[in-house]
């Protein structure tokens, strides 16, 4: 190749041949038949979604290639809107529009002729004039056509910056026709506004656009990115020094000396979204939402505690009535242990009570006794839990209504505002006493939402097990409340005899003390040694599909849950699911199936919802079975899952695009299993899981099982796990704010 780059030229033509196309980056070599020169042009460059036979306009510069001769190096390409009926037909039937096949295309063009595209774009309701096209289909076609023409310039631009088509599509979805303006203005906006775009991607875009490395927009974005990442790891704030150090790694040391100033500016701005808390020696930097949630939660807790003190002084608190306790004990058929009595007394005397304890220490029994005591005073407590599964278990163990916290707080779509909690200080909850189970799963933001909606005079009981994995969201609310030393805490520690007969319970407590579990030849807790990944995989399959079901008289899909420390690897969730699906629900002509993104979903599969969907009312962690799949037209596939609610299964239908919300659930991560219980748990623990091998992870996994635990793996991996405490302490200041060391606003 040689010579100076020539001037930019524009060539219009029809794609005759695509000699090379890289799916990843859109790099394409294509031959165009041109009108202008009545000849052929070889165009080379990024042309995402180029289709054979379509008409395109390309802009670029000529370059002579030593071997291939003269080529047009493409800077820009766009689709030429087809104008003749023939061209339109060709375009529509090319497969470029999702859900539109050749037959329908023909029908459309026959009816609307050269105006077809115009009609589709601006008067899609007219498509209903044609037989066989319903409302849904008409909308789908219109959407597809609009997308083809609008999205292409954004796609082109982003792909030339090395951004994947999937992310480009998200950008387009968010900003539509303004996408390019947004990108050129401040690409860092995408980090906050488009899910899936992180600082690195936006930074890459910004560098391509020639934004300077020291631009304040860049440094701000880096700081906020670090804070958001920290929140994903559970921290409510970061010490300033730590924040600056992490941000420096992102922006490079050449410009990092400006970070402290930029942080200061950010904190000064009303809408900067960052708060620097100076109440402690090392300043703590918060994303504003977390700061207010923490400070206001602490204030609310202090008010509760002040109320408690006042009541105590006025001797308003109701004393424990011995006769009533005797009645309750008779009803439950057991004498309450001293700590359990203490808990029952506390709920009558205090405004805030925490009950913690491991499995079998009598938490549920205590809650039941509390409810009985309250009911005798004419109070019906409100019950709730952070997950659907936990709420369901609460209903089962108390025989009373229990909702998820989100449900209780009426989290829903509010016109023009998006998803929000309808219950707050202006529209508080109704009730005198609130009892929340699985409180270790409540994160700081949710806790605040709950506290702000809690009526001023209410009493609150939080029940949970602080040794389990901490909340998925940022914070360590339950521990912080306990550590503040201001709140009444009843620590249940004795394992009741009935529970102690179970090795599951006994071993859970051993693991929690850093000891290896005891195993016996019979009982409800087994350990099978196997350290080789492939063999281990085979062993898990054999246990699930063949050995355990007759032993347990259980259904392999419904009653056995494989829990895994991590997603990836031979003994990771993904691989296990694929194998378990093959063994437990193999392909069959009777069962419809669907291929999607490297996985298969089949009628009969056990699946899990992986995020909260408030419109469908299915929540992260809900598990169900695929009961129907209509996949005749791949693009319009619909899949129905039956979620077992109470007695009745609830049927939820997913469109193709929504399927990313569900995952196979023969195996799930221990993290996802929090708040759930299963008859039988199989838990692989091997060195490959090393990064995840922590005591609280094994403890949480084991305590999910009601009837049987089978650990499979190596003793040495297990012993690493039980000996490693989760060393990283989450950064929060809730406890200090409650105890009054730091007050804040
Ligand atoms: N005061 C008591 N006297 C005798 N047995 C008791 C007492 N309290 C609880 N138990 C028994 O101990 C076992 C465990 O109690 P419970 O289910 O209340 O514990 P838990 O902490 O809720 O356990 P898990 O977290 O495993 O559900 C049950 O069989 C229960 O009947």
Descriptive overview:
This protein is an alpha/beta fold. The chain is 39% helix and 22% strand. It is built from 27 helices and 28 strands. The strands form seven sheets. It has a six-stranded parallel beta sheet with strand order 11-10-14-15-9-16. α18 links the parallel β14 and β15. The longest helix has 26 residues, at 135-160. It is globular. The protein starts with 7 loop residues before the first strand and ends in a 6-residue tail after the last helix. The mean pLDDT is 87. The structure holds adenosine-5'-triphosphate (ATP). Adenosine-5'-triphosphate (ATP) is lined by residues 334-337, 340, 357, 359-365, 496, 498-499.
Task: Record keyword descriptors for this entry.
745 residues, alpha/beta, six-stranded parallel beta sheet, five-stranded mixed barrel, 27 helices, binds adenosine-5'-triphosphate
